[in-house]
Amino acid sequence: TGTFVADHCSASHSRGKCDPCKEGKGFTAHANGLEGCLPCRQCKDDQVILRPCNRTQDAECQCQQGYFCADKDCEICQRNSQ
C-alpha cells in the first residue's frame, strides 16, 4: 500500500521495484500492480476536508455547514432548505 510499480521484474524470480506515492498527490489503498498512484481527491470550494489524502488513503470531503451531499460520492453539495 502507498506504492506503485516503478520497474516490473525482467526475469523469472527477479524482483521488480516499487516506489512510494507522493504525499498529498497520489495514493494506493491496497497492494497492486499499478504503474502509477491514483490521484488524490480535491475537495471543492463548498466542501471542507475531513481527512487529507496521504499515500495510503484518499482525501475525504464533506459539505460545508448548511449544505448536504446530494449523491453518495458527495460530488454535489446542496443548500439545506430552511
Note the main attributes of this structure.
mainly beta; two-stranded antiparallel sheet; 8 strands; repeat; apoptosis; receptor
Q: How would you describe the oligomerization state of the chains in this entry?
A: single chain
What general form does the structure show?
Answer: rod-shaped
Major sheet details: 2 strands, antiparallel
Main sheet: strand order: 1-2
Radius of gyration: 18 Å
Structural class: mainly beta
Helix and strand pattern: EEEEEEEE
Number of helices: 0
The low-confidence parts are none
Strand content: 25-35%
Overview of this protein structure:
- 11% of the residues are buried.
- With 82 residues, the protein is mainly β.
- Helices cover 0% and strands 34% of the residues.
- β5 (47-51) and β6 form a beta hairpin.
